[in-house]
Design a protein that fits this description.
ribosomal large subunit binding, RRF_sf, Ribosome_recyc_fac, 3-stranded antiparallel β-sheet, about 260 residues, Gyrase A, domain 2, alpha+beta
Length: about 260
């Protein structure tokens, strides 16, 4: 089967059929409607081969008719919807991390712990952090011989956090969370805004709504077909973009209210 490949994005190409024998059309186009009313893409003309009149004559005889491959608008919309939805989920995840602030159990994961013989180990290899209510963290040190080293690492991280060793369990540390100042809240709000702009308007972040929209419209523009179908497809993409942009703005505003209250 001769397969036609066009400059469409990966998400599109996984949902479309490009074949000289197979024509995939949406349900609304599966009636006895001429192919010319569907969305299709034309194969680009092949490069001219070198040679004289004989070669040109041979090429004319062997050159196949122009291939017309039908696309599936419904599959295109489904693929774009999945991408927009993934963007919303990714933003929620990042926003949740920012909202946690210092109440994040991963806050110490980047620290290095100095061991014996001038060796170092990552924090996660030496201890584990869990949330202990809204005002403290628990740190479990795997080896009690490293308890003091973990305490020193946390204090030295300049996080304004002072671990307290449990008198009944030398492997357990309680880390009270400092009060959240207005400066910290403003910093969180600023980080949320930067994250929102990145997921909404970035032209380099492939997960941003603008990037996905631009790529989709570019792919549709590269196709040929009945104007009203292509126009409707582009309009549907714009409608989807607006919906997910509104949803993203709503999530951003809610997250900002949480950190500033």
């Amino acid at each position: 089967m001769n397969v036609l490949r066009l400059s469409l994005s990966r998400s599109f190409s996984r949902n479309l059929v490009f074949s000289s024998r197979t024509f995939l059309q949406p349900a609304s186009l599966q009636r006895s409607v001429p192919f010319s009313t569907s969305v299709y893409a034309r194969a680009k003309a092949s490069k001219k081969s070198k040679g004289g009149k004989a070669a040109k004559g041979k090429q004319a005889k062997e050159e196949p008719a122009e291939e017309v491959e039908f696309l599936d608008p419904e599959a295109i919309i489904k693929a774009i919807t999945a991408e927009f939805s993934a963007t919303g989920s990714a933003f929620k995840e990042k926003a949740a991390e920012i909202q946690k602030g210092r109440a994040d159990p991963k806050i110490f994961d980047h620290l290095n712990i100095e061991l014996d013989h001038h060796e170092t180990s990552s924090f996660t290899e030496v201890a584990q952090t869990t949330l202990r209510g809204p005002k403290a963290l628990n740190v479990t040190v795997f080896d009690p011989a490293n308890t003091k080293r973990v305490v020193s690492a946390i204090i030295g991280a300049d996080l304004n956090m002072n671990p307290e060793v449990d008198p009944l369990n030398p492997q357990m540390l309680k880390v009270p969370l400092p009060l959240v100042s207005s400066e910290v809240k403003e910093g969180q709000a600023k980080a949320l805004k930067a994250t929102y702009e990145n997921f909404k308007n970035s032209t380099t972040n492939k997960q941003s709504l603008s990037y996905i929209r631009g790529k989709a419209l570019k792919d549709v523009k590269a196709a040929e077909g009945t104007k009203n179908i292509l126009t409707k497809l582009a309009a549907d993409i714009e409608k989807l973009h607006k919906k997910y942009a509104d949803d993203l703005l709503k999530e951003y505003k809610q997250a900002t209210q949480v950190v500033l209250k």
